[in-house]
Amino acid sequence: MDHTLETSQQKEKLLKTIYTLQLKSITTLQTASPLLNSQRGMGMVTQHQVNQLADKAKSLCGDLDNIKNLLHYCQDDLVQRIPNPTGSRYGGVCGIHCSLDGSIYVTAESAPWVHVLSSTGQTLRSLPCQQTGKESCTFLPEDVTVTRTGMVAVADMMNGAIWVFNPHTSLSKGEWLKIRKVGSPRGIGVDSMGKILVADYAQGEVHRFALDHAFRTLNIHSVPDLQGPRYVSPAPNGGFVVSEECGDVSVFTSSRKLLCSLSSKYGHQFGNPAGVCVDVDGSILVADEQRRTVHLFPEHGSPVCLVSTGLRRPAGLACSSFGHLFVADAGENCVKVFNCPVSSRARWQGESLAIGDGEQQAPMGEGECPALPQARVTARLRLLISQPSRQPHRPALGAGRVSGEQRCRVYRSIRIAAMVLKVFFPSCCSSAESGILIGRWISEQNSAVILAVVHFPFIPVQVKQYLSEVERVTKVSVSVLGSWSNSKQEKEKSLSEFLEDLGTIFSHEPWIQISKEGDSKFWSCSTLQKHSKNSKEEEIILVYYDQRKVMLSHLHPPLATDPKADDASKLSAIFDTVAKSKILFMTDRYDDGPIKLTHWQSDGVEASIIVELMKQASVPACMLLTFLLSVISGICRSRVLKFWPLSFLWSKLSICEQLGHRLQHLQVISSNKKAQNQTQLMRKANIFVSLLIDVALGILLMSWLYRKNRIGHLADTLIPVADHVAEELQDLLQWLMGAPAGLKMNRALDQVLGRFFLYHIHLWISYIHLMSPFIEMILWYVGLSACLGLTVALCILSDIIALLTFHIYCFYVYGARLYCLKIYGLSSLWRLFRGKKWNVLRQRVDSCSYDLDQLFIGTLLFTILLFLLPTTALYYLVFTLLRLLVVIVQGLIHLLVDLIDSLPLYSIILRLCRSYRLAAGVKFRVLEQQDGKPLRLLMQINPLSYGNVVQTYRLPTYSCYPRDSWTSLCKKLFLGELIYPWKHKGEKQD
Amino acid sequence: MEERQYRSASGAPIALRCRQHSASCRELAVRCPRLQLRSLSAVTSAVWLAAYGLFVLSENSMMLSSAIFITLIGLIIYLHFVKIDQESLLVIGSLGIQVTSSYASGKESTTFIEMGQVKDVVINEAIHMQKVIYYLCILLQDPGDPQGVSEVVPLFQSSKPRLDCLIEVYKSCQEILEQRKTALQSSRGK
């Protein structure tokens, strides 16, 4: 396409003409429609003719839209080719995402990386898809997106998981977090509300869920019944667009209803739609893998083919806000950048609004912006056309808009409380002397949170000064809300008048007056509204709250920290207000300031000197600990320990895992960074307490072990026990070599197997006897490790069990391998009988014609295998049972370790002793009533239940068990595949 | 304050108590059927007889003591975690709805739902065992979607009152919710 001055001028002219045409037709219709619709006879015009006119106008509109689109976009405007940053080794590029700042995120088909490119194609960063800590645990991202908080999220189809890269972890590089398991996620996107969209390919679903700051998934919804959804992209109105394999592209609304499918709406035939995206002005772009094109589907008008040639296998698609279209071409293994100009609608959005208001004198001819709000004008035209027989133009349009606004207002006002005034009054102020009430007025809830009472005498200027100072420090808008009179004897008339006068000094709307007479429990409460026109008396509710408890408690679940939090919950606003004005309560009762306040005052912390000393001491202690930890982790990371046999050993010993876990805990505790929020603080405290308890239990165990030569006794019993086990095994083998349980085995094979295993046991016994002089010493040194914690000792125990039962493991492996071989042989020979074979390339069973001698040999082998199977199966069964026994014992030990590791002891103790600190919410108790007096409620803290405490604050563990379901375990056992108690390297951990 | 007798879905007598604290605050309490001495003694004697039978067979006195422990612990667990004495609903027009169930041992479990979250209170029907029963529930507002319902909180789950009682409760709840709506409308009219 040429962009010379001349053509562009021509283009402008054409656009101007189109616009004039549209505007003309609008004015014609506007003037014509009231005439046509007048009740007093239609002249010669029939309804049919009106409809015809409307149809013509509609088709004109469509044509204008099409021409506008064709004028606007240009075809095959290739700007740049960005080669795949991974190279060609790992397959072509497939997933692509363009963030708002123009950087591009690219994934390839089987490369464990996410590359971040600049808009010009330079590689800015490469994020290796590896779980930190466990080097070999990599995954292959299919598609990539960026969440609203700027974190990279990828879909991992192989493991069926969604990962998010969290750059703000304790590790400097950041780490990948598995946030959710999904069957087989293919495409991923983030919609306009910040929720994550995931296309589940095999299940045929699109999931949508939100992610909170602790990376938990909330509000999970799914759209079922899709045919192989592959790519998903957000639509501008809060909905989303999904492409189905060899099918259609569907558009969904924000409430997950099917809005339309593109093929039916535009009459377009897709080959195999792949990547989808939505550009700035709401047009949907679809890449077609089969037809090798990219089409643009504008909101109005027919589809435009943006890229028709030059693509080999387009996969992902992304649009930048700067007018570029990025196509991931998996066939040529590069990202192609095309020009995709931002349409005029987005460019002139601001102007269109301004002009839309003063539409009568629209400066259509003389303005320098020729393509005025076309879309808006066409929309309006359409509105007019669609209802030719209804009211004339003005009301039709106006009514629609007003009702929308009204609905909006109704919705907002429902969320605001009704016109009942709520006064939250601290119960500690009920005996305060007369004065004025200060606190925060929350107008949207129509409630007043009173924080303190200022006594007489005071100077109003000083009070105002003090309040502005408090407001500056606490960022809470504290003001004088009303007056408080506490008359001990009879009502003093002068005082009440004076209090009313105070309202003129401190102007607040409404002015709350609370008065207590004598020792009466029932206070009278009234409001003064100076500017109110309504004489109607408002209902007032007095809510008493315990200032200290409300200040110290934390509402659960923790609030989202975004500024819109105030509409989330009313009570949280009150909690927040009280907690923030902590500084107000710091003043002591002996402080002799210019103002006297009554509010909750702490009686001082018990043993505060000790606490202070500990605080002072903890800083150098933490520094020392950090230094030691860095040295230890440096040693651990050294290369000597990474060579093959050693690294293999480390990964199999549970003690190493546990030590690494504890090391991480210590690093968390000793880091001198201050905990940013409540969750992190609790996490630190929980880790600290669990570590302390663990070490205490370990030392207890040690003190028990090292007294009265218990180690020696243990060593003395250990060898005979191992011997005994070996003897029992020998007996078992002898029994198996005979006729076990009256079964008749294949004698020759039975003998061979039995001798083989017997020889193994013989080896084992000699090994044990070789070891026996050193056992006591080994136990003595190993026992020392209990001072590192009970969990470490338990892990060592588990490892010792694993080592001592190594022969059982060997038997199991031999048995399983033999059995497995036989099963596979039998199954393939069974296929041979039926004239079939397994096709490796296609992963399916094909029919095949065999020769006669092939069949003969096959039959022979089948018979032999079939008759030998019971013998092998018996050995396999016996040793598998033995193995399972050991695995169960080890599993129980690990469960115990996990329990100690993950139990949030600090939170539980807090819940037990200071139940108000962890609040699930509040509860109200209705206090005694008297007619004519306001309703009195007592607000109490509703503590979190223990189950919730554990659930919220549970510490994450390294769970290293393969989470097989029972059926898959049974299947594995039946087929003779090996089962492991530890994490299998090939499997990704859960 | 008034108390009226109704029947639960299973036919046991229950009492509905309604207290009007103020114009916009109302408390509705349903008292569940009391623990019957007959059933308690039947269960206890059954456990003890079984224990005695085992004792005669095995001649081990552990059986008898364990039977006593089982009965005691079972009773404590039943009274503290299972048996609900009273379920009450406190509707405060401008604040919210509070659902309290008090157990026979005196333990209370409370949930407070803010008015902003409450979308409506409705009567629903459900299939329970072999029959269809009605129950009252609170619909919670979905924060993302003004039309949607995020959760349904069933009320009076333990006492399961019949429809006539539910209608009574429903009407008094709706009165207060209506008040709130009219207040809203009048405030918008200004």
Structure commentary:
The complex is a heterodimer of chains A (990) and B (190). In chain A, the strands form 8 sheets. In chain A, strands 25, 26, 27, 28, 29, 30, 31, 32, 33, 36 and 37 form an 11-stranded mixed sheet that branches. A 4-stranded antiparallel sheet of chain A has the order 1-24-23-22, with no helix packed on it. Helix content of chain A is 44%, strand content 22%. Chain A is built from 24 helices and 37 strands. Chain A is an alpha+beta fold and 990 residues long. The longest helix of chain A is centred in the last third of the chain and has 51 residues, at 852-902. In chain A, a hairpin with a 4-residue loop joins strand 23 (324-329) and strand 24 (334-339). Chain B is α+β, with helices and mostly antiparallel strands and 190 residues long. Helices cover 37% and strands 39% of the residues of chain B. Chain B has helices at residues 37-58, 62-82, 163-189, and strands at 2-7, 13-22, 25-31, 84-92, 96-103, 108-114, 118-128, 131-141, 149-154. In chain B, strands 1-2-3-4-5-6 form a 6-stranded antiparallel sheet. A 3-stranded antiparallel sheet of chain B has the order 7-8-9, covered by helices on one side. Classes of the chains: A alpha+beta (990), B alpha+beta (190). The interface between A and B is medium-sized, with 33 and 34 residues.
